[in-house]
Amino acid sequence: MATDPYDLITMGRIGVDLYPLQTGVPLARVETFGKFLGGSPANVAVAAARLGRRTALITRTGADPFGAYLHQELRAFGVDDRWVTPVEAYPTPLTFCEIFPPDDFPLYFYRQPKAPDLEIHRHELDLAAVADARVFWMTGTGLSAEPSRSATLAALAARSSGASRGGASPGEVSPDGASPGDVSPGGVSPGGVSPGGASPGGARGAGPAGYAAAPDGRITVFDLDWRPMFWSGADEARPHYAAALRHATVAVGNVDECEIATGEREPYAAARALLDAGVRLAVVKRGPGGVLAMTADGRTADVPPVPVEVVNGLGAGDAFGGALCHGLLAGWDPATAVRYANAAGAIVASRLACSSAMPFPDEVAALLDGTPAAARAEGGRP
């Protein structure tokens, strides 16, 4: 029903990605570009929508043709854009990149004099919908300037206040006593097949993963999302990161981002520090070293990466995030959820674009079954 809580609401950055259609060429020599929906929270919402989740985005664009384009794209991807509003004073941001596979993808943000997505005001938020969403996803960039910072913290406070009117009750939360080697709370084994025969791409499970949720069953994700160009320095960011962590149930970041949030860079120490800060699930991305997931109830999953031929690594983390939300909503155990998210990220890394490259469930299932990501077309399906 349309009045049911959203599976996922994301909040924060949006813009237009203008990516070179040639790889291994510096921007000064690029002749043609592709235009794509961009911005990490927008991409996460798209990724989860492609996996069958009901998603919405809270952000702002310029009152210009690029803003109209972003609305068009969000709707085409199945993301509810009702909370995407225009700002007359500022243009829609643009982001350029250079593509030097396998691991060099410089980004150039054009967000001056100020990005519209930093003009989100608290009084504009539908706090009831935010509170009711099964998963809420926010980012470190949203904390970098006012009024977005206060609005983001208000949304987090609504999540932790217990104000939900339509979300899952504690009785709907899946049990969280399974060990890493057991069948997950949602009924999906680490091998990827549920008792009913469905792969993780198609199984929704019995309810949200209790190990990642608040007592009322809702999951609040803090994407640590450290972008140094948006801050004067790490010392400015740290108190705001600490404030957000007090409301989050899940934290996701690479080792650089974890260091900003906790002062710890070693993955296991960083994960423990995030748990000490109050989250129930810490996810530490280690690039070629894979992903570490650690829970407050004592489970640890150390999941290797999925090998692919990298075309453009940008957007892989957003695919990971949307797929992680999908797995947590399905009630999968940490190893299964992270393995699935790794596969989704790998597929996007093997493609040029970000938003349009987000995989469908059958594509993730195929990669987990051993089909090379490069064997599938860009974007998966029309």
Can you walk through the features of this model?
- It is a single chain.
- With 382 residues, the chain is α/β, with parallel strands linked by helices.
- Helices cover 29% and strands 18% of the residues.
- The strands form 2 sheets. A 9-stranded mixed beta sheet has the order 5-4-1-8-9-10-11-12-13, with helices on both faces. A 4-stranded mixed beta sheet has the order 3-2-6-7.
- The C terminus is likely disordered.
- How would you describe the shape? globular
Q: List the total number of helices.
A: 10
Structural class: alpha/beta
Number of strands: 13
Key traits:
29% helix, four-stranded mixed β-sheet, nine-stranded mixed β-sheet, single chain, 13 strands, disordered C terminus, 18% strand, 382 residues, alpha/beta
Give the arrangement of secondary structure elements.
Layout: E1 8-11, E2 15-20, E3 33-38, H1 40-50, E4 55-62, H2 65-76, E5 79-87, E6 94-97, E7 107-110, H3 127-132, E8 135-139, H4 148-160, E9 219-223, H5 234-245, E10 250-254, H6 255-262, H7 267-276, E11 281-285, E12 291-295, E13 300-303, H8 316-330, H9 334-349, H10 361-368
Parallel strand pairs: 1-4, 1-8, 2-6, 4-5, 8-9, 9-10, 10-11
Antiparallel strand pairs: 2-3, 6-7, 11-12, 12-13
Helix pairs in contact: 1-8, 6-7, 8-9, 9-10
